[in-house]
Design a protein that fits this description.
single chain, alpha/beta, Rossmann fold, Cytochrome-c3 Hydrogenase, Chain A, domain 2, 2 domains, two-stranded antiparallel ribbon, about 25% helix, elongated
């Protein structure tokens, strides 16, 4: 399976993340699955004329293209020409390359939230006209039409995240190589459901504090970060706390709130990332699948039943009160 990876407007963080794939490493994993990387601008040896020859061979159909991976948003400015971002050495905008190569590919994969929905590079006034491949934020239809389907029959597969988890990328590629990823395996935003059907809240180490609504008030503290510190793990798609990053960590395990970086338009929450917006003292962002009245009723009961241990530890940066040992019979 031939794979071509292009880096568009972004920081390259998804490639950095991909290199953290472990046991096996990304190169051993892909080669073992019969996935041949034709070219990656940061990782391949070919440069200059050699790289251009690979692109031309793919564009002409001389070399078949099975998977086109795009990392970073696609710049459409100025005025829809895409000439704010010329693919080095080609004299052509990346926008043109994407539109030419995507119909030739058996599968098109957007690597990271920038490529999927626009991401960080589309934030603010977006003078560059940065957008995702098939989605402009929450709106379908962008560089590629909303009805676009690659030769394999799938829309753009959005392996979202900022950066995306290395295992999400490799697992997606392995599923595509085996023909085991169908349109029904993607959610409504084109994300593979093997990770998007989970919430970041699942397996979060702060869940005991969440259950009793014992909240941290500062980032260094152990309590749940939903009430005061902007954490939206109860609404965010991702199995981050189940599979872990870089040997087992995650944002919430590291003590920072989940900002739902796998979602369209996560980059502009209209409030500081580490603050929870409230209305009449009640957090605006409540769990996505629970009625508000039920949540408030349960929260009141939970707070009233909070054990002293959990209440004390919630606003501490280490365990102050350990769990009590069971009494001897």
């Amino acid at each position: 399976m031939n794979l071509l990876w292009l880096q568009s407007a972004g920081c390259g963080g998804c490639t950095m993340s991909l290199l953290c794939a472990e046991n096996p490493g990304v190169f051993d994993l892909l080669s073992g699955a019969g996935i041949h990387v034709l070219w990656h601008p940061s990782l391949s040896q070919e440069t200059g004329a050699e790289a251009l020859a690979i692109l031309d061979a793919v564009a002409s159909g001389t070399v078949p293209l099975d998977v086109l991976c795009i990392e970073g948003s696609v710049v459409t400015g100025p005025k829809g020409t895409g000439r704010f971002h010329i693919l080095g050495g080609t004299g052509r905008p990346m926008l043109d390359w994407v539109r030419q190569l995507a119909p030739l590919a058996r599968h098109v994969v957007a690597v990271g939230s920038c490529a999927a929905y626009g991401g960080i590079t589309s934030a603010g006034d977006n003078p560059a006209g940065a957008t995702g491949l098939q989605w402009d934020g929450t709106r379908p239809g962008a560089v590629l039409h909303a009805s676009f389907r690659a030769r394999g029959g799938l829309p753009v597969v959005n392996v979202a995240g900022c950066p995306t988890h290395p295992d999400w990328v490799t697992e997606t590629l392995l599923l595509l190589a085996e023909g085991a990823l169908g349109e029904g395996d993607l959610d409504r935003y084109g994300r593979p459901r093997f990770f998007a059907d989970h919430l970041v809240h699942h397996a979060c180490p702060k869940n005991e504090f969440y259950e009793y609504k014992a909240s941290a008030k500062a980032l260094s503290q152990m309590g749940c970060m939903m009430e005061h510190l902007g954490c939206v793990g109860t609404q965010a798609a991702g199995d981050c706390n189940i599979r872990g990053w870089n040997g087992g960590s995650s944002c919430t395990r590291a003590g920072t709130p989940c900002v739902a970086c796998t979602a369209p338009e996560w980059e502009e929450p209209r409030h500081p990332f580490t603050e929870t917006p409230k209305l009449a003292g009640i957090p605006v962002g409540l769990p996505s699948d629970m009625p508000k009245a039920w949540f408030m009723a349960l929260a009141s009961l939970s707070k009233a039943a909070t054990p002293d241990r959990i209440g004390a530890n919630a606003t501490a940066d280490r365990i102050l009160v350990p769990p009590s040992l069971p009494k001897r019979p």
